[in-house]
Design goal:
Oligomer: single chain
Largest sheet: 2 strands, antiparallel
Shape: elongated
Strand order of the largest sheet: 1-2
């Protein structure tokens, strides 16, 4: 089986890169919102819905946002594909 002509490898690489990009964006979001406003005197913290603003934006708001991003990736980017050793062509004959 030639891996260079198998389109499943291209799709798997695309899915892996999108997953790494989503993880990277989420980590950056979490790091900036947690350590940006949270790097001050605790007496000066502002609050959102009873939580410190840094915690609300990094943990409470960040999780639903990344969940929507992951849902969109699975819905629009990821594809279901067979994992057989040698996929058959559309005419049912082996290549």
């Amino acid at each position: 089986m030639r891996t260079t002509k198998d389109p499943r490898f291209a799709q798997a690489n695309k899915e892996a890169l999108c997953s790494l990009a989503a993880f990277g964006l989420y980590f950056i979001w979490w790091f900036v919102t947690a350590y940006g406003p949270g790097d001050a005197d605790p007496d000066s913290y502002s609050s959102v819905l009873g939580f410190p603003a840094w915690f609300f934006y990094s943990c409470v708001l960040g999780f639903p946002l990344i969940s929507l991003v992951v849902w969109a990736m699975v819905r629009f980017i990821f594809r279901d594909m067979p994992l057989d050793a040698e996929p058959e062509n559309p005419h049912g004959e082996k290549e």
